[in-house]
Structures are given as C-alpha cells and as structure tokens.
Amino acid sequence: MNRLNICWGLLGTGDVTEIKGGPGLYKNPNSVLEGVYNRTKEKALRFAFRHGVPKVFNSVDEMLHDKYIDIIYIATPPYTHHEFAIQCLEAGKAVYIEKPLTMNYAQALEIDAKARQKNLPAYAAFYRRGLQKFIGIKDLLDSGQIGAVRMVRVTHWMPATEAEKRGELTWRLQKEMSGGGKFWDLAVHTLDILEFFFGKMQALDGNVTNQGGYYDIDDTVTATFRYENGIVGTGSWCFVADKQVEEVVIAGEKGNLRFSVFGKEAVILEQNGEFELFNYRFPNHIAMPYQGSIVRELLDMGKSNADWEQALDVMKWMDHLYHKSGDNN
Question: What is the pTM of this model?
Fold first, then answer.
C-alpha cells in the first residue's frame, strides 16, 4: 500500500480487544486505529474513550465507506465472520479475522475466493506467530538442536467450570455461535503453531465426542496427524478432565522440546538427560508484535509470519475431523 501508515477499523469491542488485540492497532509504529463499531453503540463509545479512538461508526456500512481505513479487524463471534469478511473485502478493505476463522471450511474458502478476486490480503489472528517464544522454538528446531523430528505429542486437558456444570454457557459453547466446542476455539492455536514449525498437514484423523454431558457440543477430542514433510503426531484434548494439563512435546533423534502453547512457562530442551531452559518475555498486548509485522508487510517494509494458506489448512482439517465424527456428536 502506497502510504505512510496503515489505518485500521475495529469491528467488535469485546474482551479480546481490550488488552490482547486492540491496543496494538494504535501503539505499533505506522499503525492507526481510525474507528470502531459495536452493535451496542454505548460499548463502542466507551471503548473509543478508553483507547482514544477518534471515530465511532453507527453501522458496519459506515465503517466500510470510510476512505481512510485499509484493513478491518473482525473481532466478533465466529458465526459473523464470514458475512463481515465478505462485506469488508467487497468494499476494498483487507481483513484480519479472529480465530476460529469461520464456522466451517466452506465459509473460509469463500472468504479466500473473495480476497483473491479483489486482490486483497486476508489474515488470521494467530498472534503467537509474532511472539519470541514461538519464533525461538522454531529457531531451535530449524537449527537442528534436537536433530530430525520424529513425532509430536499434544495434551490439553482442563476441568469443566462450575458455571458449565450448571448449564450457564458462554457463546463459545453454543454451536450456532461458535461452530464447535473448546477444541474449535483453542486447538486452532496449537494446530496453527505446529504448522508454523512444520508446514501443512497431510492427514488428520480421530474422534470428537461429548463425555461430560454438561452441554450439547464436543468436550473431548483425540487425534493423530501427519505433516507433508513426514512428521507424525498425536493429540488429546479433554475439557471435562480432573485437572489442568497443557503441553506439547516434540521428540527428535538427539533430544526433545517441551512447552506450553497457552502458558508463559519456560521452553525445556532435554538432551542426554540434561535440561536447558529458555525463558521469553511477553508483551503487555500479546497480539501487538504480530500486528506490527502485518503493518510492516502491508507497507512493503518486511515479511510477517502470518500465513493465510496455513490458516485455511487448519480450518480444512478441523472441519474434516468434525464431519468425520458425525458433526461432533
């Protein structure tokens, strides 16, 4: 884009935008948050006041017709992503879409087709690709610290909350709004970061089930997967377990790496029975480095770690797993 700054529009002002995803839009160099929209105008006004945003739009259409806006951050629940993304692209605006991208792979492909038709970039909000922790893990893998990678093991367990047991469910556990259960909401981050490390998947198989009975959609998933480069892996996700466990283990011929995708714990490198810990600092606004790299990319000042094709690939395989398992019954 032939300009000095990238101007953002923010569609939705929920929790994810307050600290994680919103401030980076105006705190990064060459990045301006031009205006916001929320269907409840008072929420948009309060957000604009707290963050010093100059414009509050009365409608999505008004935002789309703002000549200064280059890209729109779609930070609304997943059931709205497809419609809003198509509208934004049709209006000539690039899109940055919260995860999960859409309710299913078919919707994601329609967004991709519209972006190609309009010759506009599309981004998924997989901000971990901008964090030094995951860039550091990739560097360790690429430099051969553990030798050839043999396999990957993912474990993500957590107990059901008391509110969930009482049937008090957030939109994330209402299929018509979220597209799936906590796996659909959380595992996308893990599967995306593994594609950041290893490239696209070639196969994914498994089971999507409801074991706890606290709500109507899935709470437990088991899977095996294989990447195009031959690396294989297994995963277990249980959101009605007795305790919290969240860990990825990457086993290599000369050692292994252990780390959390969602926590700030040190990355552990084990070789010959000896351990080395790698600690990384985290920014106050966790999406800010990734968003900054996208701004630089849009200004032709560098390449970001964002990969739209891999984001689509994650959607493809998750959708495949859900449909194979009978639509998460």
Answer: 0.96
Identify whether the C-beta of residue 299 lies closer than 8 Å to the C-beta of residue 286.
no
Whether the Cβ atoms of residue 227 and residue 199 lie closer than 8 Å to each other: yes
Q: Which helix or strand (DSSP H or E) is residue 6 part of?
A: strand 6-11
Tell me the per-residue pLDDT of 31-60, one tens digit each, with 9 for 90 and over. Answer: 999 999 999 999 999 999 999 999 999 999
What the block records as the tokens of 204 is 């994914």
For the chain, domains (ranges, CATH) are: 6-126+289-298 (3.40.50.720), 132-282+311-324 (3.30.360.10)
Hey, what are 289's tokens? 């480095």
| Structure token digits, residue 329 | 């019954």
Residue 52 backbone zone (phi > 0: left; psi -120 to 50: alpha; other: beta): left
Q: Which residue has the tokens 């971990």?
A: 128
Please report the sign of the dihedral spanned by the C-alpha atoms of residue 275, residue 189, residue 140, residue 286.
negative
